[in-house]
Automatic annotation (TrEMBL):
This is Hemerythrin domain-containing protein. It comes from the Bacteria. Gene3D superfamilies: nmb1532 protein domain like.
Length: 159
């Protein structure tokens, strides 16, 4: 039996279940963005405006869902985890939780991506678009790593 089973209120268990559900939805959005970006990256010609708009919409949806997720974590999940950690007296988890609370730089890469796409649209420089795709794919990688870290650190506490 894991020590947190004795100190986890049902509210925290429900929050951790929600974490898992939201992480799966965000991962699905990440995969959509990555797939479409990879298609555009393979193309021999710069994408047309419809493709750029589609990728921007996918990226905005991903960014919005991740921002909403992070706000919920800060408001609900992390305070519940802090309480459980304090009850269990687990100093390792205090550090791990602090690392999660720092947030994720993925959104920064999404903004860099859009900046490069804007440059491409203004100056018609294909290199700007492809550089932006690299930023976007890095942002996706960072978001996935953050979600995996959350699951690795927090989800073992619900079983």
């Amino acid at each position: 039996m894991y020590v947190y089973q004795e100190v986890l209120p049902s509210e925290l268990s429900q929050a951790l279940e929600r974490l898992l559900d939201e992480n799966e939805k965000i991962k699905s959005n990440v995969m959509k963005v990555e797939r479409f970006a990879a298609e555009l990256q393979k193309g021999s010609n710069p994408p047309d405006i419809d493709q750029i708009i589609k990728l921007k919409c996918l990226t905005d949806a991903l960014s919005q869902s991740f921002e909403t997720h992070e706000r919920w974590e800060a408001k609900v999940l992390f305070p519940l985890m802090k309480e459980a950690i304090s009850r269990a007296g687990d100093p390792y988890m205090h550090t791990s939780l602090w690392m999660l609370e720092k947030g994720n730089p993925g959104d920064q890469y999404f903004r860099l991506y859009w900046g490069q796409v804007s440059t491409y649209l203004e100056k018609l420089q294909p290199d700007s678009f492809y550089k932006g795709l690299k930023y976007l794919l890095n942002g996706c990688r960072l978001v996935k790593e953050q979600l995996e870290l959350e699951e690795e650190l927090l989800l073992p506490h619900i079983h």
